[in-house]
Write a structure and sequence with these properties.
Two copies of one chain form a homodimer. A seven-stranded mixed beta sheet of chain A has the order 5-6-4-3-7-8-9. A two-stranded antiparallel sheet of chain A has the order 1-2. Chain A is α/β, with parallel strands linked by helices. In chain A, α1 crosses α4 and α2 crosses α3. Chain A contains eight helices and nine strands. In chain A, β3, α5 and β4 form a beta-alpha-beta unit. The interface between A and B is large, with 60 and 60 residues.
Chain lengths: 219, 219
Amino acid sequence: MKRNVKVSSAVIRRLPRYYRQLSELQEAGTIRISSSALGKSMGLTASQIRQDLFCFGEFGQQGYGYKVDSLREEIGEILGISRGHTVVVLGTGNLGRAIIENFRFSSNGFRLLAAFDIDPHVVGTRIAGVPVYHADTLESFLQKNPASVGLLTVPIAAAQEMGDRLVSTGVKGIWNFTNYEIAVDPERVVVESVHFSDSLLALSYMISQREEREGEESV
Amino acid sequence: MKRNVKVSSAVIRRLPRYYRQLSELQEAGTIRISSSALGKSMGLTASQIRQDLFCFGEFGQQGYGYKVDSLREEIGEILGISRGHTVVVLGTGNLGRAIIENFRFSSNGFRLLAAFDIDPHVVGTRIAGVPVYHADTLESFLQKNPASVGLLTVPIAAAQEMGDRLVSTGVKGIWNFTNYEIAVDPERVVVESVHFSDSLLALSYMISQREEREGEESV
């Protein structure tokens, strides 16, 4: 498959949504779907869908729609799901624990290797089967068990230091839940930060728009 | 200020990022910023910034850039930060607890009223000062204390039922962390779902692209 390497970040952001939507369609037994039906289920236009997928090659057949399973597999390939990525979790507070216990790493192509903390009550235990080691042993562990990604859920005060240590051990990505914008060399590591506030503010906007419309209608 | 009501969802998604970025600039003491500098700090082009902000009215002055504090305030207004939104949390597992303890609701214009659960060990306690009530009392509580938003962090098996109950009490938005796509009437309520997997898969994509490039270079 020929790939157009220059893909906009908006398209990259939509790819995981395609993958999720197609996984749900596949589970529901859908074999084929038209770009307009796929678009409708995702709040996108049919032409946007066709444009997005065209970035990555030729999918689907005019008049026949997309084959759900092969499109899902292809997008999974593009997302790197079968590359054998591995992840370690730094910080086992409530959020770290929630993610370890509930997040389906393997469905997203990641193998969760271990978690790290400094709390003596947690170090040495297991969370949902995942061993928790002392943060002091991070480097020696990663030397033997290289990780693609370090998930940061440490307190803000420790975020930069732990981020630096992850970079120096050679992780390729940092999945940052600390709400602190760590400064790292973008040539060495990709940082993906999760900002809950962005999501709540988008919701706030949509509610506010609706309230305004309703206010106008009732005048 | 005249508002162009038809704003694309991509712009809506960027607004909270503008707000966050401008808040950081303000805290750092920045008075004015050019569209190119603002763009650079956010990975956007200057013309995209100008286009986005143009949707909402006239900001900034040619050659003088944007005034950080007033642009931040204006975007906050657009996002509905001063509308007095309120929120209740349904489910006080690890994730619910992490959000209650750490998420800065008030910085985002939300007042956290209460949390609800069915676990007798938690009901009647407080988490970071927030009272936890039994889920059976949700309707009677919301009758007296209307909430704009219900945050769902219940187990998947309870997600649809609790979503329905929130809708029937008149909440305007559901902030859904359950990873289950609840089915609700979009005329009655806005649902904003947080999918950690979308974020991890975007990171996976970026890492994979980089690995491929490095692989090609080393050949």
